């Protein structure tokens, strides 16, 4: 018994039914065909799961869950032959790489020892916005720029080295992240059609992807060269030096060998997944707050009452005191999950999902965008109401399948604790020190909500708001 789905055309399958955003097209189709559907992306059958129950069944069942996107032009290149974590097929490579990342980047010990980097950067963020508020009081700030720089500086400093910001400017970093992300996530004909690579070459897609990929590789080589030149390999001060040391050391026969591709694959994951998802979350949250002045007012009053007046800086202890901020972020995650389709999965054996038989080696996509707006899980699902999380046990950590911004199961985001701390710290700093208003002549109805991106979905038009230093 296979799941239902719209009838496709020969060779292209259902590709002609997709619009600019796959998560939205699948959302629309699922309203007609239900929460488990069979579609064809070209000649490749794909199961789309868009219910909480279906997601739970897929993500909890470890022996059938694995992940590997079919070898695509974009993801194969940007993951350095699938030697990264996020797109590596389930097996030794994924396990070893995840182990290295968890111990060198995401452990509780690392989270604590990198705390000063996050607090430093949040002070820098406040100084930058204060300067604009004092020097040009009625001018708006491009929040995408300041938020992106904040998130990127933290992620890059803690994974690529302390002096990272001294030799690369943030404009270059932003351009690289956005260009690489789009090319990694965009679908190629080679993914889904036999000989589709010919169309990719004729259409110019292949050369666009190759150009973006070589820019990213050149950038990574600059960071690696800096480590080699400054003799940082021995000191293990960051994950790059640890991995360079592993590459250089002779390994015993049969043991896991770290290569240059593993190092660049991990850099690619951290750089693209880490920087982008955090800043996107902060921007969507500030956007929803600007559209909902009642929530903004209530949140700022609660934050200022909890933290007290005239604080000089925000610290990570302050994050424990601001319950409503956490609800606001959860609500932003529900409506705008940064990676709405999660990482694609592939079945390792014949399995059953919600009573349907799914054969071995079938790709599965979970649509968290639909799950987050499902009226069975949420009342008034399209409205931004953070209060829905009051006395509600639902959290975003991968245990509650109606809210999955970080995924769940074996491939759950390993950067969750780092990511959420960055998001909370940045937002708390912006909301404690400044009052925010829309640029002159603009009303909440004028705020543009159009999306952009491929795998990670951002706000298309930059959010521009006018900051005023809060007077006590
Ligand atoms: C608000 C911030 C973040 C969000 C919303 C987010 C979201 C996600 C999501 C949805 C996945 C896929 C999970 C799945 O399919 O089940 C993922 C995986 C991943 N994320 Fe994050 N992420 C964030 C921050 C970070 C950070 C800061 C890093 C690293 C510095 C990071 C590194 C990764 C990696 C390496 C994977 C692949 C895991 C695997 O396949 O085993 N993420 N993330």
Automatic annotation (TrEMBL):
One of its GO terms (cellular component) is membrane. SUPFAM superfamilies: Cytochrome P450. It comes from the Eukaryota. GO terms for molecular function: heme binding; iron ion binding; monooxygenase activity; oxidoreductase activity, acting on paired donors, with incorporation or reduction of molecular oxygen. It is a single-pass membrane protein. Heme binds at residue 413. Keywords: Heme, Iron, Membrane, Metal-binding, Monooxygenase, Oxidoreductase, Signal, Transmembrane, Transmembrane helix. It is found in: Membrane. InterPro entries: Cyt_P450, Cyt_P450_CS, Cyt_P450_E_grp-I, Cyt_P450_sf, Cytochrome_P450_71. It holds the Pfam family p450. Its cofactor is heme. Belongs to the cytochrome P450 family. This is Cytochrome P450. It comes from Arabidopsis thaliana x Arabidopsis arenosa.
């Amino acid at each position: 018994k296979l799941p239902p789905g719209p009838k496709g055309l020969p060779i292209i399958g259902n590709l002609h039914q997709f619009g600019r955003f796959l998560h939205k097209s699948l959302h629309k189709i699922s309203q007609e065909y239900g929460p488990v559907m069979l579609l064809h992306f070209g000649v490749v059958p794909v199961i789309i799961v868009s219910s909480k129950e279906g997601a739970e069944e897929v993500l909890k069942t470890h022996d059938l869950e694995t992940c590997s996107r079919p070898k695509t032009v974009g993801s194969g290149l940007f993951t350095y032959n699938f030697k990264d974590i996020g797109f590596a097929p389930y097996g030794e490579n994924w396990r070893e790489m995840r182990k290295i990342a968890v111990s060198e980047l995401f452990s509780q010990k690392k989270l604590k020892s990198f705390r000063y980097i996050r607090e430093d950067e949040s002070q820098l963020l406040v100084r930058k916005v204060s300067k604009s508020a004092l020097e040009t009081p009625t001018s708006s700030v491009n929040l995408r720029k300041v938020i992106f720089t904040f998130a990127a500086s933290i992620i890059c400093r803690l994974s690529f080295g302390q002096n990272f910001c001294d030799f690369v400017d943030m404009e270059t970093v932003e351009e690289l992240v956005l260009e690489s992300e789009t090319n990694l996530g965009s679908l190629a004909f080679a993914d889904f059609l036999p000989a589709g690579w010919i169309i990719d070459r004729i259409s110019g897609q292949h050369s666009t992807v190759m150009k973006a990929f070589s820019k990213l590789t050149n950038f990574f080589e600059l960071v690696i060269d800096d480590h080699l030149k400054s003799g940082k390999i021995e000191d293990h001060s960051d994950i790059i030096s640890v991995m360079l040391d592993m590459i250089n050391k002779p390994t015993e026969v049969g043991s896991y060998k770290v290569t240059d591709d593993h190092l660049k694959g991990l850099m690619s994951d951290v750089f693209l997944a880490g920087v982008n998802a955090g800043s996107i979350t902060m921007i969507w949250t500030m956007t929803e707050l600007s559209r909902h002045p009642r929530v903004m007012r209530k949140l700022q009053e609660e934050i200022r009452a909890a933290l007290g007046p005239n604080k000089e800086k925000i610290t990570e202890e302050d994050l424990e005191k601001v319950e409503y901020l956490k609800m606001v972020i959860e609500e932003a995650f529900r409506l705008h999950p940064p990676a709405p389709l999660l990482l694609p999965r592939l079945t390792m054996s014949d399995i059953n999902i919600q009573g349907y038989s799914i054969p071995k080696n079938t790709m599965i996509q979970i649509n968290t965008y639909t799950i987050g707006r499902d009226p069975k899980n949420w009342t008034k699902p399209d409205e931004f109401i953070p209060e829905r999380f009051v006395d509600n046990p639902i959290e975003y950590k991968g245990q509650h399948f109606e809210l999955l911004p970080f995924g769940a199961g074996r491939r759950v985001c390993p950067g969750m604790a780092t990511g959420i701390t960055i998001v909370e710290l940045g937002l708390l700093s912006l909301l404690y020190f400044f009052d925010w208003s829309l640029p002159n002549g603009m009303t909440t109805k004028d705020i543009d909500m159009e999306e952009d991106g491929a795998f990670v979905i951002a706000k298309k038009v930059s959010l521009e708001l006018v900051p005023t230093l809060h007077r006590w």
